[in-house]
């Protein structure tokens, strides 16, 4: 029996979340394609340069905030339901968070797309970071607030299931699929406090005109309190897949249950206090706190390195099970013809590269060379744009059949897709990194200036522009392949009781070897809060003590 | 490796003239006219008996003042301290291809000190999105040999 | 029958193996190559940096661009001064404003000024449209002309085509056209 038949209610919820996620991916990806052609001056005929920023807002919001959040919700519904062996506790509650989140998304999306309608007063070209005093339509902020609140409700839904389960299983370890989901959500609670306070406490009253002035640094700091942790909110579900499912796809089993739990605990503790590393170039935050954030950021490399180790070890185990031998030869025995495996594995490889460019970002002094240059999008297209997005796409090839009871169609196209993404992303990201070193800014419709020319260390600007445009085009083709395969399978795949093998084997080193203290959620949550207070209370106090809205700036409609 | 990275940065602090920005110094963005930003430009100051220069720059939608209509002209081999603030929205002030790179935030003053080693031109890019004409916001710094620096364009 | 079937089965297995091979070579090989080339170039630049001769960029034959304060029809009887050149930006508008003034001495013959068309940096050409021609009559002092265009958001005028009906030296009147390459147009936020 597959997931659909065992948990029909949960399957429906997960599917609904995936549909929204894929629509956001389709629209956001289309905007990405237009951006890649526009800013490189390869083709500017779609939209004018003022509208570019509306598209870029759409790209950032739809992909980084909407696609991820909805996909994660679907993934966790699947994982929690399955590992606790319970349908959601109350379907009315479950559907209410789904619809609340969707209404929020629609409000936000409408205000953004309003910017493409001539003379429309409904606009939100404020990018996904929405720094004031640039001001969007109030519905933009209200919609975002609804998405956040609904995501809290989703988390509460999973904790609810867990508590009910706990009553019947007082002495069992938290099943790993639930453990990872709950720790991710705890981190989400800690970090979204910042953006919730920002949006509800400052931006909504201000956009409605209840207060006229706003201090720009305070919301910006609150945003980045959230803004780095959100990266881990995207990444942890990818780890979720790599830890729980990828070993199985490569023919083996998870290497160590304990390692997995330790990694998630570390992320809960350290994800939020690092936010200032996005503000190295800001005035108004002292160097000492920036230094603290930098040290913490470096520490965060540790769990990622541990992940790399565990995942590679699990894959090697899998390959050897399949008859792989030798020092490196086992790699050839991995299932390089399975779309789900290939996508996850290539995403992991790209993440390692992204980690390297991330270390450079995190170093305060080097950061100033590349701060706000196109280097930065070059970096996070490796992390969120590939490690996360490609993992999500790849695992969809495995999840969607379980949720729809239909077999995957067009397997060849599905196999080409992750390879194409890897190729396109290498081209685009490589050139973005190089252009960033020359000083080319990000978020710029026409980064060609009349008064001076950029001087790349090697290569030419034209060559980099073309590389970005070609890479972006290949990515778009890959995205179309993905959407086509998923839609076709969902609508017309062959029905089957068991469309995929969805059995997940036990880890090599199981939960019985894992220290019990790792499951103590209250302890880790309290520690996480203390670390956040240490990092943030003083700078925030400095910003607030001279008046919450002081020194005040007037709004500028976007 | 992590230790290595932290060590490099500490080294960067100690050994180089580091330009990380960071002190909480506020200003009323709606009332710059009563401050040194009211007469933006290059000013001469004497510190410890040496002649140095201070540059006050306003970043506004969609120009550097000075920088866009006329270049910021400063001498080489001299300590120059930049003070940057914005009367309207967030902007960036990035001297292209260097690590002189700061945010300009209304209400805050960004300050950094540098010495340009050679006479040449640099482009200034606004690298933070600041509105529909963000991409046209650019400026120029002209570093001239110390001996050729013309003091008649200084502001009080 | 059966033989045929198993044949095509192994055929398809072979072809899928070949596909994987191609995909790995193209999909992973090219990326590795690109990264290696970058690494090589980076190291190359680091080591041989000193030898690199600073190439002076070729001086581009610069067209002198016209900005605020410049004069058109300089060699004619009635030169026209650009008083205002500006793009006003706000959330919904992207408005180009042009202000021209002509000397006070327009007291005898009427002067005619016409804005023919304008080419934008994006390549679009805006035709004259209505109210783009002025007849400056006697006693009209100081004659000042102001024109506005709503441009596509983000676009910037590159060249203006303007013509004027001017009195020539030999006392005949004739129409002269001037192509004005515009430069350095301030783009400012408009508070209104
Ligand atoms: C078809 C594939 C994609 C293409 C061609 C593409 C292209 C681009 C380009 C060219 C930019 C830089 C724009 C600029 O700074 O001016 C950008 C920014 C960005 N992209 Fe993508 N992208 C793609 C997929 C993704 C995915 C899958 C994600 C995340 C899930 C993503 C997240 C972002 C974010 C967060 C930004 C920054 C937006 C901002 O600066 O406000 N992109 N993208
Ligand atoms: Cu700006
Ligand atoms: Cu800008």
UniProtKB/TrEMBL annotation, chain A:
One of its GO terms (molecular function) is cytochrome-c oxidase activity. The chain crosses the membrane at residues 16-38, 58-81, 93-118, 138-160, 181-204, 224-246, 258-276, 291-315, 336-360, 380-400, 412-432, 466-486, 523-541. GO terms for cellular component: membrane. Residues 18-496 form the Cytochrome oxidase subunit I profile domain. Keywords: Electron transport, Membrane, Respiratory chain, Transmembrane, Transmembrane helix, Transport. Pfam families: COX1 (PF00115). It comes from the Bacteria. This is Cytochrome c oxidase subunit 1. It comes from Fodinibius roseus.
UniProtKB/TrEMBL annotation, chain B:
InterPro entries: CcO_II-like_C, Copper_CuA, Cupredoxin, NosZ/Cyto_c_oxidase_sub2. SUPFAM superfamilies: Cupredoxins. This is Cytochrome c oxidase subunit 2. GO terms for molecular function: copper ion binding; cytochrome-c oxidase activity. Its main location: other. Gene3D superfamilies: Cupredoxins - blue copper proteins. It is found in: Cell envelope. The lineage of its organism: Bacteria, Pseudomonadati, Balneolota, Balneolia, Balneolales. Keywords: Copper, Metal-binding. One of its GO terms (cellular component) is membrane. Residues 50-155 form the Cytochrome oxidase subunit II copper A binding domain. It comes from the Bacteria.
TrEMBL record, chain C:
It comes from Fodinibius roseus. This is Uncharacterized protein. The chain crosses the membrane at residues 20-43. Keywords: Membrane, Transmembrane, Transmembrane helix.
């Amino acid at each position: 029996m597959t997931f659909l038949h065992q948990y029909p209610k949960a399957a429906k919820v997960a599917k609904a979340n995936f549909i929204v996620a894929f629509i956001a991916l389709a629209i956001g990806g289309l905007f990405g394609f237009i951006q890649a052609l526009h800013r490189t001056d390869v083709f500017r005929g779609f939209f004018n340069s003022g509208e570019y920023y509306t598209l870029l807002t759409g790209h950032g919001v739809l992909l980084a905030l909407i696609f991820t959040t909805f996909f994660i919700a679907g993934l966790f519904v699947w994982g929690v339901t399955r590992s606790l062996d319970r349908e959601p506790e109350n379907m009315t509650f479950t559907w209410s968070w789904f619809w609340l989140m969707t209404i929020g998304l629609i409000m936000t999306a409408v205000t953004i797309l309003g910017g493409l309608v001539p003379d429309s007063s409904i606009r939100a070209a404020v990018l996904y970071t929405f720094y004031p005093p640039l001001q969007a339509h109030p519905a933009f902020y209200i919609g975002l607030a609804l998405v956040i609140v609904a995501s809290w409700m989703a988390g509460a839904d999973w904790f609810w299931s867990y508590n009910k389960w706990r009553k019947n299983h007082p002495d069992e370890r938290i099943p790993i699929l639930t453990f990872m989901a709950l720790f991710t959500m705890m981190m989400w609670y800690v970090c979204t406090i910042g953006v919730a306070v920002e949006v509800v406490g400052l931006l909504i009253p201000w956009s409605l005109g209840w207060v006229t002035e706003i201090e720009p640094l305070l919301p910006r700091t609150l945003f980045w309190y959230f803004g780095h942790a959100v990266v881990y909110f995207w990444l942890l579900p990818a780890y979720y897949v790599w830890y729980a499912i990828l070993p199985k796809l490569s023919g083996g089993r998870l290497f160590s249950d304990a390692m997995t739990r330790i990694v998630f605990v570390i992320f809960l503790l350290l994800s939020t206090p690092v936010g200032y590393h996005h503000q190295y170039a800001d005035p108004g935050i002292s160097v000492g706190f920036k230094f603290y954030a930098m040290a913490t950021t470096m520490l965060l490399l540790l769990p990622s390195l541990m992940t790399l180790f565990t995942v590679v070890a699990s894959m090697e185990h899998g390959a050897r099970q399949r008859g792989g031998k030798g020092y490196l030869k086992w790699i050839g025995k991995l299932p390089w013809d399975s779309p789900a495996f290939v996508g996850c594995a290539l995403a992991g490889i790209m993440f390692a590269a992204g980690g390297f460019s991330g270390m450079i970002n995190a170093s305060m002094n080097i950061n100033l060379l590349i701060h706000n240059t196109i280097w930065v999008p070059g970096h996070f297209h490796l992390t969120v744009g590939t490690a996360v997005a490609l993992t999500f796409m790849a695992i969809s090839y495995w999840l969607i059949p379980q949720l729809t009871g239909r077999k995957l169609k067009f397997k060849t196209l599905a196999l080409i897709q992750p390879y194409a993404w890897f190729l396109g992303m290498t081209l685009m990201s490589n050139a973005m990194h190089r252009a960033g070193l020359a000083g080319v800014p990000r978020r710029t419709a026409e980064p060609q200036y009349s008064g001076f020319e950029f001087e790349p260390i090697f290569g030419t600007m034209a060559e980099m522009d073309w590389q970005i445009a070609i890479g972006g085009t290949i990515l778009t083709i890959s995205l179309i392949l993905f959407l086509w395969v998923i839609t076709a399978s969902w609508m017309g795949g062959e029905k089957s009781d068991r469309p995929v093998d969805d059995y997940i084997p036990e880890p090599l080193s199981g939960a019985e070897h894992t220290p019990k203290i790792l499951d103590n959620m209250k302890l880790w949550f309290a520690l996480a809060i203390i670390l956040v207070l240490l990092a943030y209370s003083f700078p925030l106090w400095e910003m607030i003590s001279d008046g919450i809205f002081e020194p005040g700036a007037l709004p500028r409609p976007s | 490796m992590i230790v290595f990275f932290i060590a490099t940065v500490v080294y960067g602090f100690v050994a180089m003239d580091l330009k990380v920005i960071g002190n909480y110094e506020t200003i009323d963005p709606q009332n710059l006219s009563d401050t040194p930003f009211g007469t933006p430009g290059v000013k001469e100051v004497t510190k410890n008996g040496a002649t140095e220069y201070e540059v006050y720059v306003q970043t506004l939608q969609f120009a550097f003042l000075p920088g866009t209509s006329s270049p910021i002209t400063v001498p080489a081999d001299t300590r120059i301290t930049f003070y940057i603030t914005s009367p309207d929205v967030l902007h960036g002030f990035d001297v292209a291809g260097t690590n002189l790179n700061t945010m300009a935030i209304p209400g805050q003053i960004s300050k950094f000190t540098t010495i340009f080693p050679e006479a040449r031109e640099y482009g200034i890019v606004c690298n933070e999105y600041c509105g529909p004409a963000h991409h046209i916001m650019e400026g120029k710094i002209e570093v001239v040999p110390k001996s050729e620096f013309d003091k008649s364009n200084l502001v009080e | 029958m059966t033989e045929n079937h198993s044949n095509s089965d192994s055929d398809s297995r072979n072809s899928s193996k070949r596909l994987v091979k191609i995909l790995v070579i193209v999909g992973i090989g090219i990326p590795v190559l690109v990264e290696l080339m970058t690494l090589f170039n980076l190291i190359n630049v680091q080591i041989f940096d000193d030898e690199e001769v600073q190439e002076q960029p070729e001086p581009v034959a610069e067209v002198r661009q016209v900005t605020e304060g410049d004069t058109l029809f300089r060699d004619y009887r009635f030169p026209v001064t650009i008083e205002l050149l500006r793009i006003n930006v706000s959330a919904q508008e992207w408005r180009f404003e042009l202000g021209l003034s002509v000397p006070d001495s327009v007291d005898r013959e009427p002067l005619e000024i016409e804005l023919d068309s304008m080419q934008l940096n994006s390549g679009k050409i805006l035709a004259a449209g209505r109210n783009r021609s002025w007849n400056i009559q006697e006693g009209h002092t100081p004659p000042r002309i102001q024109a506005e265009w709503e441009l596509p958001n983000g676009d910037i005028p590159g060249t203006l085509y303007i013509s004027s009906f001017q009195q020539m030296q030999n006392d005949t009147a004739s129409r002269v056209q001037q192509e004005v390459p515009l430069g350095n147009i301030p783009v400012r936020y408009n508070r209104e």
